[in-house]
Design goal:
This protein has 460 residues and is an alpha/beta fold. The chain folds into three domains: 138 residues, NusB-like (N-utilizing Substance Protein B Homolog, Chain A), CATH 1.10.940; 58 residues, Alpha-Beta Plaits (2-Layer Sandwich); 213 residues, Vaccinia Virus protein VP39 (Rossmann fold, 3-Layer(aba) Sandwich), CATH 3.40.50. 46% of the residues lie in helices and 14% in strands. The chain contains 16 helices and twelve strands. The strands form two sheets. Strands 5, 6, 7, 8, 9, 10, 11 and 12 form an eight-stranded mixed sheet that branches. Strands 2-3-1-4 form a four-stranded antiparallel sheet, covered by helices on one side. α6 packs antiparallel against α7 and α11 packs across α12. It starts with a helix and ends with a strand.
């Protein structure tokens, strides 16, 4: 029990770090740092910690609603420590069958005492035990009377995002998307070699750890990995046999149709918001495989991220790719009208990857989205200036929001005078939609086997 209590204390500290009103940390960084710091924990302890942290964060709106149903002191009036202890307790009661309700209550009480709130032990115990007794009869919002509120609480999504999606995509697609974002997202890798022995070695390594490997249906070199801790320790990683990359990122590069772009010279590719470098690496691999000469520059504003990208290029022996620190808003005269391909996977609200980065939905606001839209236009204007006559621009985001995506498609045509390129001949049929012929596709979590991702290609 002592070890379990320590794990819960860790989770509490992680939640406090992420849910601070000012300067809250990002959840994916918090869990990565804690896993590295406490690497000595057993696999079971790490799994418990990850599940409780991510689950509590993911279901926070629902948890707060449930607490408010049974507590005289509302969640927003509680001290941050007590608020998060209560959330953890309710999550264990509602969603962790391996934890008895009595243990969820008792450990929450111990946690309150350990954090200096002994006077609130009775309050914590009373509210949690009431919720445990009534967990099958919680009065959730009525689906028929207030569908938006029902969706917001049931799927723990802020009402403004629910409103945005219903307005843009309708109730059916919004509901499917909310369900999809709560499903566990698989980790995908891209095999860089066609050598079946490399795949067999990776599978053997995974099986030793109790992991799994299966082909992704969208692309022949994409694989889904399940039940493993540290991918960087697997057979072939250090040698560059595979890279960790999301399937939607792979599809974005495929949309360019790079093998058909041989211009009888050196193809010049500029990736303006490249970190962590997955798209650049795939583009380089495709061109190497096709025997097309190229030079590729991958940029990011962060020196630290640029160093990481260069390390990845070196590990994968991509000698024609180099990482450079550069602000995407700053025009570079050396590249004006010079690029055969510009990859612009630009900053966005990130609403499409809420399933992986659960705190995005709490940190993002309507005003922040509007600010991002304005930033995107500025970056796209600079990006388009680098494309030479006959060259291509890949514009992509990891969000689901027409203001950040489809609206820019029209803006790029009308203002930047670029022509959409049909994606029907480059993307696999499984992701085709009525818009792929028009040069863009919005991938929807819950409807496609991907994150929420937007892909579009234009020609100058």
């Amino acid at each position: 029990m002592q070890q379990e209590k320590n794990i819960r204390q860790l989770v509490l500290e992680m939640l406090l770090a992420v849910t601070k009103k000012e300067g809250g940390e990002y959840s994916h960084k918090v869990i990565r740092d804690v896993q590295n710091k406490y690497n000595y924990l057993s696999t079971q302890e790490k799994a418990f910690m990850k599940r409780l942290f991510e689950g509590t964060l993911e279901r926070m709106i629902e948890l707060d609603y449930c607490i408010d149903c049974y507590s005289k002191v509302k969640v927003n009036k509680m001290k941050p420590v007590i608020r998060n202890i209560m959330r953890m307790g309710v999550y264990q009661i509602l969603y962790m069958d391996s934890v008895p309700d009595s243990a969820a209550c008792n450990e929450s009480v111990k946690l309150a005492q350990a954090k200096g709130f002994a006077t609130l032990k009775g309050f914590v115990n009373g509210v949690l035990r009431t919720i445990a007794r009534n967990k099958d009869a919680i009065p959730y919002p009525d689906e028929k009377k207030d569908y938006r509120k029902y969706l917001s609480v049931t799927y723990s999504m802020p009402e403004w995002i629910v409103d945005l999606w219903i307005g843009q995509f309708g109730q059916e697609t919004t509901t499917a998307m909310l369900q999809g974002l709560l499903q566990e997202r698989p980790v995908t890798i891209r095999m860089r070699t066609e050598d079946e022995k490399a795949v067999e070695a990776l599978l053997a390594d995974l099986e030793k750890q109790g992991g799994t490997l299966r082909r992704h249906p969208y692309l022949p070199y994409a694989y889904v990995i399940g039940k493993t801790d540290d991918l960087t320790q697997l057979s072939g990683f250090e040698e560059g046999a595979f890279v960790i990359q999301d399937i939607s990122s792979m599809l974005a590069v495929e949309a360019l149709g790079l093998p058909k772009m041989d211009n009888q010279g050196t193809l010049k590719i500029l990736d303006i918001c490249a970190a962590p470098g997955g798209k650049s690496m795939l583009a380089a691999d495709i061109l190497n495989h096709a025997g097309i000469d190229y030079m590729l520059e991958a940029r990011d504003i962060s020196e630290y991220k640029v160093e990481l990208m260069q390390e990845n290029f070196n590990r994968c022996h991509l000698n024609k790719a180099k990482a450079v620190a550069w602000d995407a808003l700053e025009p570079d005269e050396r590249w004006l009208g010079q690029a055969d391909v510009v990859i612009a996977d630009i900053p966005c609200s990130g609403l499409g990857v809420i399933g992986r980065k659960r705190d995005i939905k709490y940190k993002m606001t309507p005003q922040a989205v509007q600010d991002i839209v304005e930033l995107q236009e500025k970056i796209l204007k600079v990006a388009a200036s680098y494309v030479k006559k006959g060259g291509k621009l890949l514009f992509s985001t990891c969000t689901v929001n027409k203001d950040e995506n489809e609206a820019h498609v029209k803006w790029i045509q009308d203002t930047l005078k670029m022509t959409p390129v049909s994606l029907n001949g480059t993307l696999p049929g499984l992701v085709h939609s009525p818009t792929t012929q028009q040069g863009f596709v919005q991938l929807i979590p819950g409807m496609q086997d991907t994150d929420g991702f937007f892909i579009s290609v234009f020609e100058k």
